[in-house]
Amino acid sequence: MKFAVINFPGSNCDMDLYYAVRDGIEQQVELVDYRAQSLEGFDGVLIPGGFSYGDYLRSGAIAVHAPIVKEIIRFANEGKIVLGICNGFQILTELGLLPGALIQNGQSRFICETVALRVVNNETAFTNGYSKNEIINIPIAHGEGRYYCDDKTLSELEANNQIVFKYLENVNGSVEHIAGVTNKQKNVLGMMPHPERAIEKILGSDDGLKLFQSIINYQVKVNN
Amino acid sequence: MKLVKVYVTLKDSVLDAQGEAIKSAIHSMGYNKVENVGMGKYFELRFADDYSDFEKDVDAICDDLLANPNIETYRYEIMEAE
Amino acid sequence: MKLVKVYVTLKDSVLDAQGEAIKSAIHSMGYNKVENVGMGKYFELRFADDYSDFEKDVDAICDDLLANPNIETYRYEIMEAE
Amino acid sequence: MTEPTAKQIKDEKLYQQWGLTDSEYELISTKILKRLPNYTETGLYSVMWSEHCSYKNSKKVLRKMPNKSERVIAGPGEDAGILDIGDNQAVVFKAESHNHPSAVEPYQGAATGVGGIIRDIFSMGAQPIALLNSLKFGPLKDGQTKHLVNEVVAGIGGYGNCIGLPTVGGEIAFEDCYEHNPLVNAMCVGLLNNTDFKHGTASGDKNLIVYVGAKTGRDGIHGATFASDEFTDKKNKQRSAVQVGNPFIEKLLMDACVEIIEKHPEWILGIQDMGAAGLVSSTAEMASKAGSGLILNLDKVPQRETEMNAYEMMLSESQERMVLCVKPEFVDNVLEFFKHFELDAVVIGQVTTDKQYKIYHQYQLVTDIPVDSLTEDVPEYDREEIQPQRMIEDKDYQFVPDIDSLEETWNEMLQRPNIASKKHFYQTYDSQVKANTLVRPGSDSGVVRIRGTKKAIAMTNDSNSKYVYLNPFVGGQIAVMEAARNIVASGGEPIGVTDCLNYGNPENPEAFWELDKSVEGIASACEKINTPVISGNVSLYNEYNDVAIYPSPMVGMVGLISDIDNVTTNDFKESEDLIYLVGQTQDDFNGSELQMAQFGKLKGNLRNLDLDQEKLHQDLIRQAISQKLIKSCHDLSEGGLAVALSESTFENELGFEIKTGLSSAQMFSETQSRFLVTIAPENKSAFEKLMTTDIEYLGKVIATPEFKVTTANESVEMSGSVAAKNWKEAITCLMK
Ligand SMILES: Nc1ncnc2c1ncn2[C@@H]1O[C@H](COP(=O)(O)OP(=O)(O)O)[C@@H](O)[C@H]1O
Ligand SMILES: [Mg+2]
């Protein structure tokens, strides 16, 4: 598989994702500049964490107007794999590719910690390598990671099994402990925790590796 | 020059964590008569003089950039800048 | 109930990194007639009904908490809340 | 505003307001220029000759520090020092203080402190890999101090998190003397892949000076002189000196500079950041180092504000700006390169051969002075020094603690802000971005691996200023050795040091004695363990209404871990592991946290530190770690053995059962040169054989969170969970 890691001005987990793909699952990966016009030839798009455009205004809000975004939308609408992590998740919600919004943590502070997540839905392109309700340890590092959506959206998310990860302990005050959601079609995932920081035991956890492996499993199935 | 003042606030249904934090800070300073605090954003946009067609621009800028309709509402005022 | 609306903005001499970033975003969206963007904070304080002495409170709250006198200025309006 | 004339400046002694003394002004006008300096020129001298830029009071003392080893590629004098770590790689590091800006405007002061130290690293062509910080505040008792702490911590996190560098270590201490004069020291470590680095020089006739980055505003004018001023409570007029940071722009600037030096080194001759005293300091230093002259045209400088005069532009400390010296044939490539990063880059001047520093503004020559007079001709002062009276009076005093209940004292000590967990603060720093952090804050050192190799870098900030206050020389030695023990305990070999020397007014003989003697202490310790001081920073005049802070040298140490298998942390790993104390314990209570807890203030002298013994212990621990004998290792510092034991249990919720010959009081003694280690039972004899020094077998790690302790006086069993709660929650409670 060939992945694109989108590099917005201010993205700062782009290389972390790049290495996760190159070394963690040994697939092809390229950094793609925010000014690029095309995602032709890629099988998956990864939107990294960081502070795109300084996260000034609202996190992710300005990135939405970068040239590459049209292509990301096309890519997502064609049912291809799009994964947004942290700032990437914020961008995907700002874009409307994912429901809800991410707002300032309940405790009004940035928080960096490794937290336990529950895999709520293990039947997605991103989680088929986990077992249902598996507890995994993944780092978080965000100031604006509190997932918010209105009640109607929440019942839709639940009805469609779009909630993929939940925090065991609600670290930031998210609605229903939500840490990651997909779109209806389940080809777009956004999550605040950083699986790319958890792909080697020496970094504290390798529980994130299965997420990337799941994408490969899924693609193999689709291709056959 | 035209000056547009834009106010963006959180929808009532969204918990305003910052507003809450500020309220408790105000109380701890001893001002107990403050019953509620909301925090929002305030923008000042200045438009070139020769441009008259800006109202629809302002709407678009607010809708597409300054406010996130999932969580926020906005209003604005237009005035002549000194 | 009294409603106090407080506007906090950066002093003119202080770099407005956010305003600059927003301005370039607005330009990249095609609205080139926007010549300047400033970003500030907006607060709504609600005071208990039975309290009349709040003007000096508001000054103190702004000076000590809502605005940072090193880099910001503020102004406010007082009105009757619905 | 009309500028005062040269004559007015002289007659009305206006130069004094800018910090120049009569004799300095005299020297400039009669010897150097042989005419009266004009307004702009006087301004340039006043900042360049400030302590902050010139080190005129401290140079003589700083020369005492060792700065050579087989690893040193560049030492003091550059933006940052460089140490060879093999395989054509080098580490680059430096620390910087931002005390005064943070006292005035805590968030932005701390944020721009971080931004500034990062620029020092990437201007050397190095990729920054980690940040640390050392913070000192007054006690957490009033709202004002808590606000200050919150803002400083938020500023540090705000900048580091946004730019995407992990903050992997640091320290926070609370003492009365810092209440009005907090210390904010930041350190950055970078990795240089091409040891053929760019010097910060501007050489070669007709080469061009290029300005890159944020626009210039009136930020921080006279920040450098202001950093060298004492504080009084009349601080309102200083408020115009506030600089604000933009980490987003700095990220672009960092990526661009690292890339241009890596990919196109032939385009540029020199690169330097604009730090204190902005444009003048960076360009004058570059030209002076190269033996060149310089012409600048200020009309080309990107400006954020209108109607700035030459003085303001030259002295502005607007953040996120760099200057480059570029070969004319490549200038278009360079401008185009930065444009791709969406950064302003313009040619603002040119190198000349006449060694003059010439500035044009609005087509007028506003400055024409010898370059070297700004950087080289600064008078060096030899200050009077005298041993502080307290040291003479209290020479023989010994604090004798009084322990009624070991359990109570133990829990009380764990809750002291200087000892309790600082997680409340450091968890707001992203410590893992870049996915290289092997040891996050909370152990002895932060450890970051070097991707693609087996190597890792360990780093720590240490400064127990209480010891330095009681005995500057020994305290200085301890600061170095404590840092070294932290590196060693993490599995590293100490290889170099950076420092921030935070002191009071050097014109006060006692304060100067403290500076001089503690630097001698630092120097002797660094020599002993072969850790040259390759960069650093001096911050004097840390006083408030004439009361000085404790002499507070901050030691930032970097260690090399040649094999990441050797990375060791301080937490106990498994029950049944054997616990040993390495090193002898004595009655070292002067300067201890126990003295502060029970006596409420510092008093007495420190015992001399046996450097041979210290080095032996460090070497033995390193050997034991490389022979894979050690499962956990913790250095003993504040609160002594009791605190070290407790801290080791918290992460994995274990406990211990120990029996010691020490008295209950000695459980809190702060004798130096000690480590607490655990080893697997099967390694008992190998470990004991290796340790050719005093070691004491204490007991075993147990699976439940209980502390079972038998001292020479008593036996207690206390709850580890209660201890953990006390230690973990103390700061959060105080911050409410
Ligand atoms: N300001 C800070 N920033 C980051 N980490 C910190 C800070 N203060 C303390 N820490 C971390 O907390 C741990 C304990 O600090 P400290 O008690 O100073 O250790 P030691 O006594 O071993 O030097 C260390 O890992 C340190 O890096
Ligand atoms: Mg330690």
What does this structure look like?
Chain A is built from five helices and eleven strands, in the order βαββαβαββββαβββα. Chain A has helices at 14-24, 68-77, 87-95, 151-159, 209-223, and strands at residues 2-7, 28-33, 44-47, 81-85, 101-103, 111-119, 135-142, 146-148, 163-167, 178-182, 188-191. In chain A, a hairpin with a 5-residue loop joins strand 10 and strand 11. The mean pLDDT of chain A is 97. With 82 residues, chain B is α+β, with helices and mostly antiparallel strands. Chain B has one domain: Phosphoribosylformylglycinamidine synthase subunit PurS (Mth169, Chain: A). Chain B contains two helices and three strands; from the N terminus they run E-H-E-H-E. Chain B has helices at 17-28, 54-66, and strands at 2-10, 34-47, 72-80. The longest helix of chain B is centred in the C-terminal third of the chain and has 13 residues, at 54-66. Chain B is elongated. The relative contact order of chain B is 0.35. The mean pLDDT of chain B is 90. Chain D is globular, with a radius of gyration of 26 Å. In chain D, the strands form five sheets. In chain D, strands 8-10-7-11-9-12-13 form a seven-stranded mixed β-sheet. The longest helix of chain D has 21 residues, at 143-163. Chain D is built from 26 helices and 28 strands. Among the domains of chain D are: 1-63, no CATH class; 205-352, Alpha-Beta Complex (Phosphoribosyl-aminoimidazole Synthetase, Chain A, domain 2); 568-735, PurM-like C-terminal domain (Phosphoribosyl-aminoimidazole Synthetase, Chain A, domain 2, Alpha-Beta Complex), CATH 3.90.650. In chain D, helix 20 (472-489) runs parallel beside helix 21 and helix 24 (640-650) crosses helix 26 (720-735). Chains in contact: A-B, A-C, A-D, B-C, C-D. Chains B and C meet through strand 1, helix 1, strand 2 and helix 2 of B and strand 1, helix 1, strand 2 and helix 2 of C. Bound molecules: adenosine-5'-diphosphate and magnesium ion. Chain D: Residues 9-56 form the Phosphoribosylformylglycinamidine synthase linker domain. Chain D: Pathway: Purine metabolism; IMP biosynthesis via de novo pathway; 5-amino-1-(5-phospho-D-ribosyl)imidazole from N(2)-formyl-N(1)-(5-phospho-D-ribosyl)glycinamide: step 1/2. Chain D: Monomer. Part of the FGAM synthase complex composed of 1 PurL, 1 PurQ and 2 PurS subunits.
